[in-house]
Amino acid sequence: MRPVLFVAHSSTWGGAEKCLALLLESLPRERFSPAVAARPQPYCWRRPGKFEHFCRRASIPFNRTDLVWWVRPWHHDAAFASRLAQRVRQLSEIIHRVGPAVVVTNTSAVVEGALAAAQCGVPHVWHVLEMLSQDPGLNPFLPLDQFYGFLAGWSSQVVAVSQAVADEIRQFAPNASVEVIPTGLPVPQLPEPEAKSIVFPVRDGAPVVLYVGLLSRRKGVLDLIEAARQAVAKRPDVQFFLAGRDGGVRREVRRAIAAAGLTANVHLLGQRDDVPRLLAACDLMVLPSWADPLPVAVLEAISFAIPVVATRSGGCSDMVIDGRTGRLVPPQAPSALAEAILELLADEPRRREMGRRGRRHFETHFTAAAHAARFAQVLDAAIECGAASPLTSGPLAPEMSEAVKNRDENQLASAVAAMIERLATAARRRREQARRTAGIGQRFVERGITAAYKLRLIR
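The structure corresponding to this sequence follows.
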């Protein structure tokens, strides 16, 4: 068996961790022995995260290590720069202890995995699940051409979770070697649906539209409330249910529901552990995201033969075939979203046929077995090729190509140290540039964030 170390940017249970958990469950154990290195929960939480619990239950070694995102707003740049070398050294020690044949960084949000793998002379695969140009919450301190050039240059292979992610990488790094491998789910048995009135507080005949996901601005939940207002105006019996934890706009969503007079038609369910049960009982699943590389909730819906109305916001275009397995509408277009919802609710036979087609599409392209098989091929190829030979040059990594070529450990360590200093300098430069124009309140926030990192109150 070949040991593989997966580097995760969190030990909680977000989208990236769910995708990694699905891969870890399906990766052939007779060929690979996985281990995980991830940043732990902040000290103030005083308990392991859900992803760490998953690894323990699955008998996957879990190594806690400090990681700081390099795609945060400038308030976090000082924390990123201050201990980057120590964090890389800590992860390098884990690599030496685990002895992996390849290191996989399961997000573009952290850089320590790539640097530590290079320092140890181990091949590195970068699994990219984000679209930085489309996500206002992700703000790298490098320009995107340099950012994606770094991803390509410091990896044996870049794996994109959807075609939209691959297109973005190639837009900024045309020479990048990118392979698209969508996340897969186990093929579920289609259950006999329960009566709607048992699963949802509605009459059995009322149409039910379900949203599953974070209640955040990027997920378009406020657009959904406006679309619900327009849909209810034309069809008063339609019921909307939103399942998911707060992502920063829950109060705003509640106010929008009340202001639109939708308290009898729009319901917040909170985070739920019975999503399959909800999906089996709904008529339609909706996802109004502004930017979503590959939403697992849509995969779950089509796996249960539920038609989907989603936005053309990334990976949804891979999973939903417009007019055949659901409908695709532009992002941030509540009127188009409402029209598509009403269109499908008005035609039950068409919805059922769309659901069947969606299920076939899922079984062909998005199963866990297919995902694991393709990822295993990437791991095998990376191991055979050895450590990365960077594609980038100039300000990013001029020393690395020669170091990798010569297999010189001292030269390799020197090149990595030079890159660490360059990244730290770039982070500090953005911080100083932002501070010049920041108000007193913003500077106070920045100092508070830096102090919280030092005290391990945030990660």
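The two ends are 33 Å apart (CA to CA).
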